[in-house]
Specification:
132 residues, mainly beta, 13 strands, globular
Amino acid sequence: QVQLVESGGGLVPAGGSLRLRCAASGRTFNNYVMGWFRQSPGKARDWIAAISWSTGTTYYAAFVKGRFKISRDTTEGTVDLQMNSLKPEDTAIYYCAAGLDLPKYDGFNYYYSDSGDTFAYWGQGTQVTVST
């Protein structure tokens, strides 16, 4: 049984940092892309970043602009999202997901056209709140 368990969320002041962790278990993820998404109340789900489990190649949404970094530890079975220079608009529930599709590239930015609907496995999410 595949499990993705997020941790590391919490309350942080604007300008602060948080490191989210996703513990992945239940199958071999060698062919998978691990992604981080977020969703705020009343808003659509946003893709943040993705990483190839096997190669470690990383992909970022345009709005990240160098503030976030995704990484994985294949030995520990974890995927981290380091978030710096947090803003109040980063407040959301953050989700870890595993899927088979790499993001598309339009010549300028990477993106998922379906907000991650093709990702097969999802965690329960962790709340991140950035105060002003």
